[in-house]
Amino acid sequence: MRPNMNAAKLRRLFLDFFKAHGHTEIKSASLIPENDPTCLFTTAGMHPLVPYLLGQKHPMGNRLTDVQKCLRTNDIDEVGDPFHMTFFEMLGNWSLGDYFKAEAIDMSFEFLTKELGFKADEIKVTCFAGDENAPRDQEAADLWMKHGIPEKNIYFLGKEDNWWGPAGQSGPCGPDTEMFVPVDKPDCGPDCGPTCGCGKWVEIWNNVFMQYNKTLEGKFIPLAHPNVDTGMGVERVTAFLEGFKSAYQTELFSGLFERLQQLSGNAEADYNNRSARVVVEHLRAATFLLADNVKPGNVDQAYVLRRLIRRAIREARKLGLTEAFTSQMADVVIEQYGEIYPELASHKDIIHDELDREEKQFAAALEKGTREFNKMIDRVPDFVVNKQISGKNAFNLYETYGFPIELTVEMAQERGFKVDMEGFKKAAEEHQKLSQAGAEQKFHGGLADHSEATAQLHTATHLLDQALRTILSEEVHQCGSNITAERLRFDFNWPEKMTPEQLKAVEDLVNQQIQRNLPVICEEMSIEDARKTNAIGIFENKYGERVKVYSIGDFSKEICGGPHANNTSELGHFKIVKEESSSRGIRRIKAILEK
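^ that's the sequence the OP posted. Answer follows.
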């Protein structure tokens, strides 16, 4: 008999199972990737471990397990249906060059059958069918059959289904094997299985066998020490174990729906309501982003955060909620997850302030949008018979002012106008294509390849960090970084534009340290010992009980997991090329190393 358990019990059961199998539990990393600038967010459990998957020694060992918070934006417009969400938690276990396919499948089968109560003949699996880059994964199929999975329950699929990674444009990747279990409904026919799409078979787990490193040139190079990366979604599995068809029905969201009903006075604001699902999902995600030092803005992560908040506010209006409410919803998230993710509680005041401010700004934006709408309408002569707002103009209201298309349609009807919805959809699609192309170009290359150039630029960020603290204030801290082989980008907290004198002083100080030929030394130590040495490490929730501390002579000491140069003499000449605003209270420096 399968256990009925909530998310808290599932997390603990999973972690304790793998700890009993020699794994060390590590903490969740930030939602902002440290070692992969090819992605805006941590989209999978493997992101924070990229340096170790590529061969670096992890301070906590070569068998790890965790619960990693993740965020994916590719489905942001789909949120509202019963399944899609942006923020989620991923259970994972890792082998960094230790065990491989046989042991991974052994443990997965044991957990599914002994801990979760599934029988061998009610599990179906998929394996990689092979292509020009890698052969058919018959080994995984044979291992499943050894455990009693019937051959008829094993499916071979292509790369789009049974290949994982890299998370960005380059990095670790390889074939995977996915496990499916049945929901309580009849088969759709004799071929009912993971590929039929009827909903009978639900993916519960995925084992990725990282055998290759994909280069930026598209080559698949075998890894000297293959790794294992597994992923089990907390929300999806909790729903299954609680007997629900949607994660929105579980206790993970029940408290948020209850608060939304209280605030709106709308008893229908529950998991059956599309607008209510958008509100609770987006504000849960926004709360976690704010706890990781992201603030609403107009670029990158800041823009995604603003979009999540404003979409939640728009949908809340459909439920009759027009007063400020977002910070009260965030309180539910903080209370529910605060013990697991302490950064939520420690950032409570910041979360409240940013949400309250964003609500006020959005209200002002809607007011401006209304004025622009009226100007647009007033320009049309009264004698025009078929009055219509073009799709381009409707999209401009949406994109520039955050003006909901539904509101545009409603107000247009009141004035005897129609809205070209096909034109609106076309304009939105064109904008999305341009945005995606820009993102691909912007994030081309990355630290994940661990090239000499990125290692040198990464070392330069340590020097820049300390130089800013020396020139501006000891209160300055890193709020994010993005490093390609060509340049570094460094975000930090500072309330105003830096003066030319301040920029020159920072640049000069960094170059002075480079010219001192300082050695870069790595030491492993406990997090407590790292604190005693005054090592900088504001992202401490990323790390386990043991950390790597990189010292650059007597100038910089920082907790870090990325690649570095051996000596500052390797860096060349440091040059700041731009200083600008990233989001409210966050400045951004872009710099290069000249050889």
